[in-house]
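Regression check, pyridoxal-5'-phosphate case 388:
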Amino acid sequence: MPELTSNPALRSLAAYPMERLHALKADLRKRGVPIHDFGTGDPIEPTPAFLREAFLRAVPEVSQYPTVSGKPELRRAIAGYLDRRFGVTVDADREVIPTSGSKEAIYHLPQSFIDPRSARRGVAFLEPCYAVYRLGALFGGAEPIALKLRAEDGFLFRPDLPGRVPDDIAARIAILWINYPHNPTGAQMTKDDLARTAAWCAERGILLASDECYCDVYGGEPAPSVLQVARQGVLAFHSLSKRSGMTGYRQGFVAGDPELVAQYKAARAGFGVAPHEPGQEAARLAWSDSTHAEERRQVFLAKRRLFMEFFLEAGIEVVASRSAILYLWIRVPQGMTSMDYAMKLAQFGIVISPGTDFGDAGEGFARLALVPTLEGCHAAIDAWRRAL
Ligand SMILES: Cc1ncc(COP(=O)(O)O)c(C=O)c1O
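Current build output:
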């Protein structure tokens, strides 16, 4: 029997929050409680028909390996999107990589840019946040560094304020993740905020990785991209999952500094994660069209209005929540932990995510993913009234 070893990163893993939600829902189902599921951010509005049809039409007779660079037509469509949406010009061949959604691209980044033997191997992320920044850091041999966001800063990254990022910690950071529109809080940076963050990173030689997967499900003003204010030392991560209702298609892209793009492309040749070609064809059409994305955004806005009215009436405080309109970030009642509150609502079939699913800085809050249909949201509000 060979002596098996395992990656020590495995031992430091808490249960992936999604797995806990699945278990909770299975229990409710067993007890026959109707479920109003605001847990996972996976919308149920249908994928637009023209994208489904494009996918089917593109299934080839002979199947061959997709390339790391993706099809030139797709890269050109992505460049066109960045131009129309943000007024940003990119070289489709040197500054863009199609990816299989953004999750894998986020996860693999530290493996490509961190030297695990270096004293400066920190991958910093802003908690509360999406769990994969930490996972990618752990499995990439990096040092995960959680920087806590605060409600009093509007959940914005404010390294200019005293005590937010001590110098000794800043010196260990090689990659900084930001994510605006922000999951889970819905906070939004302005273009000036992004410029200040990019300058802070540039002064310290930090790679700035901006996860912009919610930029087309914005609240008020269209959400900006970091590429509007910086290119050198910067990578932006985009996704069709929420924008175009294509979570299962796994389509996204990375764009930015051509030197970083070249290095990332070289590393990705070994990962085996190039998006498949039928998906690339659907993605090409999705990036070329903004009408369907705007229609979806309006659907999320309608659900959001419904809940904002209810929360106002019920005295439940909605915090931040300006953008990433798929989500609402609420304060839990005094005297309860985030988990107590989530478990209390679960007794009434309402499944939400305790803020602590996104890191310790989420204690005292909870996240609703506005996934059920409009009718489903009405039914959930009735159930919530009973829970009050
Ligand atoms: C902040 C954030 N980034 C990235 C992703 C990954 O999205 P995808 O891999 O579907 O593009 C998610 C998914 O929920 C997310 O919330």
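Comparison notes: Residues 8-46+292-387 form a domain with the Aspartate Aminotransferase, domain 1 fold (CATH 3.90.1150.10). The chain has a mean pLDDT of 95. No diff flagged against the previous build.
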